[in-house]
Amino acid sequence: MRYITAGESHGRGLFAIVENFPAGLSIDAEYINTDLRRRQMGYGRGGRMKIETDAVEFLSGVRWGKTFGSPITMAVWNRDNKNWQSMMSPLASEENPEARVRHPRPGHADLGGCLKRNMHDVRNILERSSARETAIRVALGGLCRRLLEHFGVSIQSHVCSIGAIESQVKATDIDDLTSISARADQSIVRFLHTSQDDEAREYIDTIRRQGNTLGGVIEIIVTGVVPGLGDYASYGDKLDGRIGQALLGMQAIKGVEIGIGFEAARRPGSEVHDEIFFDQQQHRFYRGTNRAGGIEGGMSNGMPMVIRVAKKPIPTLYTPLKSVDIDTKEPYEATIERSDTTAVPAASVITEAICATVIAQAYMEKFGHDSLEEMLRNFHGYQEQLRHF
What is one process in the GO biological process aspect for this record (predicted)? Predict the structure, then answer.
């Protein structure tokens, strides 16, 4: 599977073209729209979420409710575009030099993008680098999640912390790992319990009044993955490397760890590596612990994948940081764009979609991608191989 996304934050819309996706998958827009609505949840969001009601539209590759092997084109239209038609017009006659954005924001792509592209209008950078782009990646992730359901894969997420507030309930406290997202969706900040919602609301409101922003830590848990996805033979095929790259490619993500992650560097080997056992009744290998987070040697090992990401605070501050005018080179306050106080709850939903995309690609590489029927046939054959190992 190959894909590309396109579109700007205030342009007509956001688009994805997906090639080599299996034929025969039943899919409807409402299935994907559920995740798009989840992406818009969470306390601390800004005014944009009051304007947009994100919904996907299939423009190609889906007929009568099923994929049929053609490239799939998906669109999420920007309702706010009607307020930006002149500013985002493709016509040279609409150009307005006075509307240029000249004060790059620290922590954003603004200055680096201007230097790279030799642009003297920060809007040419911020429109594409905006996290608004993740709406179409959630749509793509929904398509991949639907495929993975046929193979028993479940992808869940929750917020571990926002700023200085840590969730008092951990995933290890939950018996049914496939219920984690549903539990988190009940909380305004996607903690695993609503008992801290009032504390979190007050904290976020205080930060908002200060003109500041908050980041946080997110945990993704993937269950039902067969062992042997990814590869040990080539660094580019290692599953943990691909997941890490994809998550670090998401806006504002500054760190990724799998399993106990950095904690492994502080422990002796006997307290890091997961001992191997064999279940005679189920005729399968298993681990007594899961410190590796479901991936060893670049391959899935059949245990739940446990991935955590660190999201930095949003770089648009209503109490702006110091910057420089890119024309005059004089000191100036950074540009203020409409933004959120925190988007960590929304980001947790986006991380699910990104992991779904990477894992779906790995399943297609292992079991084929021409049709869902072919994939399932090959998958069942692999399961039989594992049973007789």
Answer: chorismate biosynthetic process
The CATH number of the domain holding residue 222 is 3.60.150.10
The structural domain count of the chain equals 1
Q: Tell me the binding residues for FMN.
A: 128-130, 251-252, 297, 312-316, 338
Q: Which positions make up the binding site? A: 39, 45, 128-130, 251-252, 297, 312-316, 338
Residue 51 has pLDDT above 70, yes or no: no
- Arithmetic mean of pLDDT, 294-298: 98
CA distance 40 to 51: 11
Residue 338 predicted with pLDDT over 80: no
- Binding-site members for NADP(+) are 39, 45
Print the domain residue range for 247.
Answer: 2-387
The average pLDDT across 205-221 equals: 96
Q: Does the pLDDT of residue 48 top 60, yes or no?
A: no
From the list 162, 155, 293, the residue with the least C-alpha distance to 217 is 162
